[in-house]
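Lab meeting minutes (informal)
Scribe: AK
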Amino acid sequence: MFRLALALGLPVRELLARMGSDELTEWMAFYQLEPFGDFRADLRSAIVASTLANAHRSKEGKPFTPEDFMPFVDKNHHKDHHKPHRSDQPKASEADAARLNIARFKAMFAHRVKR
């Protein structure tokens, strides 16, 4: 419901006031067929990134997947591919989180890229 409100540029309360449950149900079904919003845009970028990385990986390296470039997606739950993975760990500062993501990214791909 929040994704739909965001996509339509409406507050959730206004969306609920203006839309009946039948139409909301239809939107939910449509989203299952054709996801929209930030996840879809991130997926498009991840496809391009994985294609580029695969073009430059070593022959021995495991092929990259789009999910490799979407660290917020829980790879163990493919059914819920559009739901970000939530961690119970306390939040780090944005700078610390960025440094940690860069370190993880480098470690994850170091052995699979041509030198």
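Next up, CB showed the second protein from the same session:
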Amino acid sequence: MLIPILAPVLAAALAVQAAPAPTTPESAPLSQENRALLRCAAAFALVAQGQVAGDPQAKAWPDLSVRGMEFFVRAMAQLMDETGRDRAGIAALVNGEAQALTASGDVTKVMPSCLLMLEAAQL
């Protein structure tokens, strides 16, 4: 089950692809850069969800409703292109990462480096 905010965000992100990426029996493993993209995209979605819900911890971070969404969309498209995974494969990856971040409570730990990545992306 997708975390509530991730379902519409993921749908929007994956809609940018005109045709599904080809799926190979052995999709490429995630590089360190791909893992960082995935982790930050999931963290941005979780923080954005918290901001909408009025969570004080989430509101302590910069507003991610626009820039975080754009990062998420671009990251998901890049992951599809670089790994050969299809939409379902990317959805499973981002959902798993969001669940892991939530379970471990690591969102606040990764946000500083993710915000640096967001700035580097010039979004």
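CB comment: The chain is about 70% helix and 0% strand.
No objections, moving on.
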